Every structure is written in structure tokens, then in C-alpha cells.
Amino acid sequence: MKIASFNINGIKARAEALPAWLKAAEPDVVALQEIKSTDEAFPHEVLDGLGYQIVTHGQKGFNGVALLSRFPLEDVVCGLPGDDEDVQARWIEATVVGDRAVRICGLYLPNGNPAPGPKYDYKLAWMARMHARVQTLLATEEPLVFLGDYNVIPQDEDAAKPEAWREDALALPQTRAAFRRLLHLGLTDAFRARVAGPGHFTFWDYQAGAWQRNNGIRIDHLLLSPQAADLLREVGIDKEVRGGEKPSDHVPIWIDLNA
DNA sequence: ATGGTTGCCCCGCAA
């Protein structure tokens, strides 16, 4: 089961690039972030004929997440539990049934800038809520995959210019500590389970020629429960997508599970 | 070098 995460930065803007990548990469399951569309306005025709079931958790103008699956999707949950006041569309869960059932949790973690400030407080509170949700799901002992745009640079080696991110909400010590608390629950960073060292990125800013200079960061992650980590076959980053026509500022990252 | 670019859809805000 090939499972990918892709922050597309607008489904309407990616009406050509998204299906082109799907045809080339042939993932079974995809978590999309920043669809920037309501559920009603989601252009389903963009994905017609590609064989995916689609569930969306959208919002007008910004945020918004979705799951695509070639296998049946069951028990869909929209929204991160733990705060009934939170209206931001950043979390979607479903169980995908292939050779075996895998719980897929797609997420778009808050950016948090500027820090300090209310947006950073929201980021840290959201990470605490995610921690609680992960604990709840781990108790099921199902294979779990938590994937998406975490807006977290886990370590200095995950940025081309770590000094430029020192004061940024994506790399502040409190952000990294909250990310480590997720890992300490027993989750595995799938990419780091297979690839060591610097120079592996999933995001390059549109500004200042970041792609041409390879000034990137690794902020899109797949975290695996122990039962999912046992099934891990392969990981990859589809870096070439960033050099295509009208690209997102993120590229897809994926795993292949024996499931 | 306090810049630069993109997407949303009504133009300023988020990233």
C-alpha cells in the first residue's frame, strides 16, 4: 500500500499538476493539505477517471484537508478532537482497507508565525491536542499513519540554512520539543527510519529563488505507530515535482507499506 | 538585501 502526503497549496491551482503526479506515482492513498476550498466547491472533476474515493474536510479560502483512496474508506472523522471552538479544517481520519486495515490520519499543523503570539499559542495547543488523539488511537493497536504538513523542522539537518529559521515557529525549541513528545509516544519518523543526513527537503519557498538555490526545509512527515512501522518497505520524496509546471511549494512524500 | 512569490476570490491576509 503506497501512502503519500502532498500539500498542494490550492486544489484549483493544481488542477493539472496534481493529476499528472497521481498518474506517474500511482499512490493508493493520498493525504492532501491546503485544498483551500469548501467541500461544496471542491472540483471533483479534476480527479475523475483516476480511481480514487475522495473525502474532504474543507474551509473557505485557506486550510482544508482531504483523503484520496483506491481502497474503501471507513469510519471517517473530520476535525481534530479536543476543542469544539476550533473551526480550522486541519485534520481528517479514515480507515483504509487493503490487504489489511490501516488508520490514516491526514493533518495540516498550524504554521504558528509570528512567534511568540496568539498564532504560536494556537500551534502549541494544537500539538498538545494531537498528542492526546495519538495516545487514544495507539490504544487500538491498529497500524496508524499520521501524515501531512507538520510545519516542524525537526532538527538543524532538516534545513539548508538552519540559522535562518532559529527564531521561526517551525524550528523554535518549544516546537521541536512538542514534535519529540509525539515521537516519544512510540511513533517512528518513516523518512528517518531509512535515510540519514542533511539535504533532504519537502518544501522550497516561492520567494527569492529558494528552489533554484536548493534552499529547502523538511516539514512534511509520516509518523508510524509500532504496528505500521513493522510494515514499512520503502520511503521517498518526489522532489522533481517542484521543478514541474506551476508547482506547489511542497512536494509529495510517500511510504510503501506491506499492507 | 527587512527583499521576494503565490493563492484565495474581492484585495488584504496567510504562508
TrEMBL record:
<feature type="site" description="Transition state stabilizer">
    <location>
        <position position="151"/>
    </location>
</feature>
<feature type="binding site">
    <location>
        <position position="34"/>
    </location>
    <ligand>
        <name>Mg(2+)</name>
    </ligand>
</feature>
<dbReference type="InterPro" id="IPR004808">
    <property type="entry name" value="AP_endonuc_1"/>
</dbReference>
<feature type="binding site">
    <location>
        <position position="250"/>
    </location>
    <ligand>
        <name>Mg(2+)</name>
    </ligand>
</feature>
<dbReference type="GO" id="GO:0046872">
    <property type="term" value="F:metal ion binding"/>
</dbReference>
<feature type="binding site">
    <location>
        <position position="249"/>
    </location>
    <ligand>
        <name>Mg(2+)</name>
    </ligand>
</feature>
<dbReference type="InterPro" id="IPR036691">
    <property type="entry name" value="Endo/exonu/phosph_ase_sf"/>
</dbReference>
<keyword id="KW-0460">Magnesium</keyword>
<feature type="binding site">
    <location>
        <position position="7"/>
    </location>
    <ligand>
        <name>Mg(2+)</name>
    </ligand>
</feature>
<feature type="binding site">
    <location>
        <position position="151"/>
    </location>
    <ligand>
        <name>Mg(2+)</name>
    </ligand>
</feature>
<dbReference type="Pfam" id="PF03372">
    <property type="entry name" value="Exo_endo_phos"/>
</dbReference>
<feature type="active site" description="Proton donor/acceptor">
    <location>
        <position position="149"/>
    </location>
</feature>
<feature type="active site" description="Proton acceptor">
    <location>
        <position position="250"/>
    </location>
</feature>
<comment type="similarity">
    <text>Belongs to the DNA repair enzymes AP/ExoA family.</text>
</comment>
<keyword id="KW-0464">Manganese</keyword>
<dbReference type="GO" id="GO:0008311">
    <property type="term" value="F:double-stranded DNA 3'-5' DNA exonuclease activity"/>
</dbReference>
<dbReference type="GO" id="GO:0004519">
    <property type="term" value="F:endonuclease activity"/>
</dbReference>
<dbReference type="GO" id="GO:0003677">
    <property type="term" value="F:DNA binding"/>
</dbReference>
<dbReference type="InterPro" id="IPR020848">
    <property type="entry name" value="AP_endonuclease_F1_CS"/>
</dbReference>
<feature type="binding site">
    <location>
        <position position="149"/>
    </location>
    <ligand>
        <name>Mg(2+)</name>
    </ligand>
</feature>
<feature type="active site">
    <location>
        <position position="108"/>
    </location>
</feature>
<dbReference type="GO" id="GO:0006281">
    <property type="term" value="P:DNA repair"/>
</dbReference>
<keyword id="KW-0378">Hydrolase</keyword>
<dbReference type="InterPro" id="IPR020847">
    <property type="entry name" value="AP_endonuclease_F1_BS"/>
</dbReference>
<feature type="domain" description="Endonuclease/exonuclease/phosphatase">
    <location>
        <begin position="4"/>
        <end position="250"/>
    </location>
</feature>
<dbReference type="InterPro" id="IPR037493">
    <property type="entry name" value="ExoIII-like"/>
</dbReference>
<feature type="site" description="Interaction with DNA substrate">
    <location>
        <position position="250"/>
    </location>
</feature>
<protein>
    <submittedName>
        <fullName>Exodeoxyribonuclease III</fullName>
    </submittedName>
</protein>
<keyword id="KW-0479">Metal-binding</keyword>
<dbReference type="InterPro" id="IPR005135">
    <property type="entry name" value="Endo/exonuclease/phosphatase"/>
</dbReference>
<feature type="site" description="Important for catalytic activity">
    <location>
        <position position="220"/>
    </location>
</feature>
